[in-house]
Amino acid sequence: MSNKGNKNRKKHVNRDEIEEEGLYEAIFKRAYELMNQPVVEGNCGELCGYHCCRRKESTGERLGMYLLPLEFEYVQKAVVKSYEVHSNLIYDMPPKVKKLYYIFCHEETGCLRDFRPVQCRTYPFEPHLEDGEFSLVIERDQIHDCPLLKSIPEWRQAFIDGIYEGWLELMKIPIIKYHIGYYSRERIEENNIEKQYKDHQWIR
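The structure assignment produced for this chain is given below.
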């Protein structure tokens, strides 16, 4: 009797895991679709010489980027050829995130457009949670001197709306919501918010 109960419980857990996998895959697919709008009319890469779409610096140093938690498993695994797995035992990352995938461009000449990672789609926006409320922010401290930051009035509303709704979709995955909350608190502590978009309007 006891063994039969254990078998039933095991099947139930496996079914739940399968359902969760299907849900998360659908969430990523929907977010990718929502976040597929160009920032401005035309090709923004032409404004900077595709500065971010490179595998290497002129010095030969390899360039890459972090995926969101679970993004590799549910979207990028089939297309990423070159990556590193970074553990929280060695790298600085949110404690509940055990590992993150650090990937390099899909191709030597750049990415596969349909499989651009979330961080490529959402830049220059970052997702932000404060007092339980969601917004998009542009950080004060920027690694890149992106020309888009000087032409915000030219950003397409379809891009802004798509990024906003895409992040709301992604936050249905608990570990991603936790990930966003962790970096939001860090951003608040460092006073690292230049501009903020909330409830479909700029509030700073």
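Interim note for the steering committee: The chain has a mean pLDDT of 86. The radius of gyration is 19 Å.
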